Give the backbone structure.
Amino acid sequence: MALQNQTQNNSVSQQEELVNELLNEVYKLGYMKGYREGYGEGVDDTTEKFKPIVSDGLRAGSSLSGKAMNELK
């Protein structure tokens, strides 16, 4: 009986370990996905905020603003 309980405890312990490993992997994947999406949104927001600034530079005749505007397209 004691051997059976020990075997069951080991099995449960192994299952808990596997579940914890799986949860850890799911957490990492979710974190990476959120980071990528957030980074992409941040880049898009920044680009949109700089377009009027670059446009003003173009109107003033700045060649650097022209290069920057081409990169923003």
Summary: The chain has one domain: 2-72. Residues 2-59 form the longest helix (58 residues). Residues 2-72 form one domain.
